[in-house]
Amino acid sequence: MEAEELFDKHAAMVYNLALRLSGNPADAQDIAQDAFIKALRGLPGLRDAALAGTWLYRITMNVWKNRVRSEKRRAFWKTFSLDRGEEDGDEPPALQIASPETPADKAMENADEKATLEKAMAALDPEDRAILLLREIDGRSYEEIAGITEIPLGTVKSRISRAREALRLRMGVLQNDNGT
Amino acid sequence: MEHKTCRENLSAYLDGELPPGERLSLESHLTGCAECSRELAELKRVSAIVKKHLMEPEPLSLRAAVFAKKREPVLSAWLKPAAVLSAAAAGLLIFLNLPKHQPSEGLSCSVGFGSADLGRPAETARAANGQQVPGSLKMEAEPDRSAAAAAPAPTAGRGAGEKRYAAPAFARKGTLAQAKFAGAAGSVSSFFGGAAPAAVFSGEAASLSASAGKAADKAKRAAPAEVPDVAADGMRFSAAHWRENAVSPVNGGSVRAYDARSGKFLWEARVYQIAEDADEEADVQQVHIAALALKGKKLEITDERGNRYLLDISTRKVDKLPR
Predict the structure, then answer these.
(1) Residue of B38, B66, B72, B277 for testing the chain A interface, max A β-carbons within 10 Å
(2) What is the Cα–Cα distance from B75 to B212, expressed in whole angstroms?
(3) CATH number for the domain that contains residue A111
(4) Residue B188 pLDDT class (50, 70, 90 cuts)
(5) A27 CA: distance to closest CA in chain B (Å)
(6) Any idea what DSSP says for residue B93?
(7) Residues A149 and A61: beta-carbon distance below 8 Å
(8) pLDDT grade, residue B204 (50/70/90)?
(9) Full set of structural domains in chain B with CATH
(10) A136 and B50: CB-CB below 8 Å?
């Protein structure tokens, strides 16, 4: 597999994984960048191209873990405060601008829905957010997620269930607060 | 299936991750339990919203950042100690081969291992050198001496590796002290197996330096030649040797256009792609532009390998010319 091909195929997912883990775009870009650089150096040793995604996501998780460890050592775990953004009254991450073709009310509805989701996501554990992303967006099986996150299979199952339940409850509460 | 167990398994059921037996049991429970059915519907809705909104587009700068970083030369792990050693050896060689001057006055520096006469006991050599403590460096301040007194240091006393250097003129002027550094003969010669230390060490250093030099030659290339700019249509065209933006994520192979009057950057066009092998040093794989020439409304570009291209300066379309 070529370097460009690996990047094109997985850049979006690696960035989003990093974004959900770190909680902010700046750190996400750094993590994604480091993960790709490590991966591209090790790419010649990758025997099965079909496993490239799993391998790359594991590298991304490890880059994030190492960052968290070093930040902890420096007592600057920035993601901690960002993860609690909702409690601190912080604004949720910037909303994605709806396409011009979308009718205004529909765009507003989408924006509200996304804002609600982002607030609910912010309350989750970073790893739970990553696990949910791998399941919902990348369609990874529980076994694959266990391999990527190095978390036991049973724990993956319970964490996905717990994360969805938390989102269900939280999104319901937030939507009621917003009068939707 | 019990109600509690069913609720716990709803998420796995939604993902198709339940074993067949449990799935059938859960489905059976769902037919008679409105609460679980409603919760499953809500979980499906949450899942749909997550799928719809969770992905953010990756920043455009990520690609350039990744591929720019990747091309930065990285010293192999085995090469790092060799590089450090060769740098140290080179530094020592330079120091030992500084021009030899006879100090007339002031600050001088004496360096050496102090055992030119291998047949002599170390104590004799040390005594001749005026050294006191084996294995240590000695700095001593001496009163101002005349040129005649300072210059004729006993040859036998200084080792083969010992050289005496005059300090620069600004340091010598009016200086009353002489600093003298001398390594102890015994400890250093035993480190080098009793052989003449300076000669052996110089040999090793030269060999290390030479091998590192060969590696460096292999890893590096000469800087690209300067290519004169070409002007046309109020624009100035310049061969871009070094990457600066997303259009040129690698060094070489693109042309930048500037306003001829103001010098303001207008655009950059990639003339040819350079496929790099990640296992090789990036710079030796780079192919830079060697010449620019104007052909009507087109710019003829010749690369270092002799390939020629035509860049239309209006449309920025590039055509490769036959060789």
Answers:
(1) B66
(2) 12
(3) 1.20.140.160
(4) very low
(5) 12
(6) H
(7) yes
(8) very low
(9) 3-53 (1.10.10), 79-214 (no CATH), 230-321 (2.40.10.480)
(10) yes
